[in-house]
Amino acid sequence: MTEHLPVLPIVLTLIAAPVCLLLRHRLIAFTFALAVVWNAFALAVTLLWTVLDDGTLSYHLGGWAPPWGIEYRVDVLGAFVVALVSGIGAVVLTYAPKSVAREVPEEKHYLFYTAYLLCVTGLMGIAITGDLFNVFVFLEISSLSSYALISLGPQRRSLTAAFRYLVLGTIGATFILIAIGLLYMMTGTLNMADMAERLPQVAGKGRTILVAAGFLSVGICLKMALFPLHAWLPNAYAFAPSVVTAFLAATATKVSVYVLVRFIFTIFRRVETYSGSRLALALMVMSLVAIFVCSATAIYQRNIKRMLAWSSLAQIGYMVLGVSFLSVTGLTAGIVHLVNHAVTKGGLFLAMGCIALRLGSVELDDMRGLGRRMPLTMFLWVLGGLSLVGVPVTAGFISKWYLIGAALEKGWWPIAVMILISSLLALVYVWRVVEVAYFKSPKEGAEPLREAPLGMLVPTCLLIGAAIWFGLSTSLTADVARQAAEKLLGASGR
């Protein structure tokens, strides 16, 4: 079984998706999908521990050795991302039944679980494969299923949001495919490790590699919604079903950041012209602009799901900022924030799903006095908000600590100051919700509310609890992230 461990999570969820489609019955489809994702998570955790103990794993599909055959190549970072995606997928799906019953028509429930399994498959596949064209294939599997999941939202605007995401996502995917074609034309291989060896030999032959790097950069930035290529994300998060928003916010953009890291530190690791300071500078500028512009925009949102969506755009900026430092500490910060933000924002969106179930709204004005009407849910939301701000003993604090350390390590103290100032913007939009929920009385005639069902509160507690735990103990996040960063930068010779 250990021999086939890299492929098992993918095979399990990919085969389960059409089976789930055939089951059709809502309860049976849910039970089957839930068993599948939890088993995939168990396999992913086993894979992570195996990689940590034994080093990078290579699996040759069909027995064809790379670069001729397709290789699944799993290093520390890949295994870490697979565990994150499958873990979030399992927790969120455990939360799903009541929320899906309220927001998705019953006759489409089995379609929802089918698309969910496909999305998990695609996101895990991106992190496992060592073949560049397979990255595109899995990216499209996750994207197409995401479009379908978003369109199942309770409002008609869900269809518009899904269509907009489809258009911009297709543009991004087309750019990535063009880049892959150009790189294949110049190197004659699609295996990422092999391509990294061949690129330096052809990098000086015209501008083809430069054009490929440009297409790849823009395509990836579109997929991860890095400002100003972010237009699809706010509506997609605001109008998707609560379960879908929580899952995508915690995983989809994070996997795109992973692809960016692979692009810089694996494929182009020996081509200094394209992996060095010019690209890093562009990413640094875009990420700093994203942090401030998107945080400021979040302050003025009245819909809390939209507010959290704009917050996610700012948090993507923090991740990319860490990557742009091109240092072990900076890359560690980016990877740590990738994980910490996933559990924090996933928990916040699950809390909003609890509120949407009982209150029927996620508008700020309707949340007056909610701290007294749904005390446990709001307490969880506040804890998640503190992690977004970066308060000590939360996961968000660890991320920003590493980011500031990476900036000071480079002697870039103005950037360290900017990171601190940006945290105050996060405090403002988190405080707006706290003020309304705890310091304003409910509207006259407002009906009493009760907490969401235990099946929704427990998964929310798990993610918010993880955000606190990762702030108290960094052995599972920062230590593994540093190990991944050292291996990537060691391979890059930096």
What does the model show?
The protein is mainly alpha-helical and 494 residues long. It has a domain at 277-494. It has 20 helices and two strands. It has helices at residues 8-23, 26-54, 76-103, 109-128, 132-151, 157-187, 192-202, 208-224, 233-239, 242-267, 272-275, 277-299, 304-324, 328-359, 370-373, 375-389, 395-409, 413-439, 454-472, 478-492; strands at residues 57-60, 71-74. It has a two-stranded antiparallel sheet with strand order 1-2. The radius of gyration is 22 Å and the shape is globular.
Short description:
The protein has helices at residues 8-23, 26-54, 76-103, 109-128, 132-151, 157-187, 192-202, 208-224, 233-239, 242-267, 272-275, 277-299, 304-324, 328-359, 370-373, 375-389, 395-409, 413-439, 454-472, 478-492, and strands at residues 57-60, 71-74. It has 494 residues and is mainly alpha-helical. The model has no long low-confidence stretch (mean pLDDT 86).
| Gyration radius over CA | 22 Å
Give the topology string: H per helix, E per strand: HHEEHHHHHHHHHHHHHHHHHH
How much beta, percentage-wise?
Answer: under 5%
Low-confidence stretches: none
* Strand order, sheet with most strands: 1-2
CA distance, first residue to last residue: 36 Å
Estimate the global geometry from the Cα principal axes: globular
Helical amount among residues, as a percent range? over 70%
Strand tally: 2
Largest sheet: 2 strands, antiparallel
Mean pLDDT: 86
Class per helix and strand makeup: mainly alpha
Q: Count of DSSP helices?
A: 20
